[in-house]
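Dear Dr. H.,

I hope your travels went smoothly. While you were away I took the liberty of generating a structure for the chain from your last submission, since the lab meeting agenda had it listed for discussion. I wanted you to have the full record in hand beforehand rather than looking at slides cold. The sequence, exactly as received, is reproduced here:
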Amino acid sequence: MKKTPDSESPAPEASAVAMQVVIVSGLSGSGKSTAIHVLEDLGFYCIDNLPVTLIPRFLELCANSEEPITRIALGIDQRERVFLRSYPDVLAELRDRGQRVQILYLEAADEVLIRRFSETRRPHPAAGSRGVAEGIRTERELLAGLRELATQIIDTSTFTVHELREKLRQTLSHFRAQDTLLVTLESFGYKYGVPVDADIMFDVRFLSNPFFIEELRPQTGLDPEVAAYVLQRPESELFLTQVGALLESTLPLYIREGKSYLTVAIGCTGGRHRSVAMVEELGRRLTTWGYASHLRHRDLQR
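The corresponding predicted structure, in token form, is as follows:
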């Protein structure tokens, strides 16, 4: 009996070595290099700009080496060009083999990226003979499909270099071998815009505002006096009870679906009083339920 081409190529088997693979991608100037360096510090074997089609073969080599490499970070960007179309198929193949693959995607607002390129005086890699703004637009289009596949999206627009490193350390330290869910609780001020990376968002502007109490105005939700003013009200406790019940019932479902990160944003007018106190209290409650959490107060210093 004549063999068909399919019969000559056996189906890929699940790898005997369970790997943890983190793909770092995103817009130029958004902090991808910083993310790679942080992963390297966390013990990942890091390679930048490995062609997409070579990823399965590279992981085979890592698995079959004398000392198997099980924590790998790959930097992928718009330099892949036409090969970016192969990503869905390659990721499906890796997961069929039993590999744990997560995609970290970094981005920032156009005006922030333009400023960063202006400060470094570097040309945008997708611009060619055109300007930086056109290069950013082209790159967004090229990476749109990969962004849709991302496990975690981080907007770095408001971060300084030091803040970005800290955010990445907090985020990437939870790329672990076991199933886990990192819940980021973020306070913010609506007057400065909503956080674009939030999965769930709540508005607490219905609460009485400490800003209008003269002695509380210069303080923040981290101060006991402000926290007491915000939290010791029936409507505050009702809000926390209901939001807590929602999260307590849905977080196990997110874990079941393989989600590694969940960002819950809570906003008030300026992001200094009500939202901060609520995030701090909700963080305490999450800890009692056994979830890892990271608290961030985006507009506390504005």
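Two observations you may find useful: Residues 1-16 have pLDDT under 50 and may be disordered. Strands lie at 20-26, 45-48, 71-75, 100-107, 152-155, 182-189, 200-203, 261-268, 292-297.

With kind regards,
E. W.
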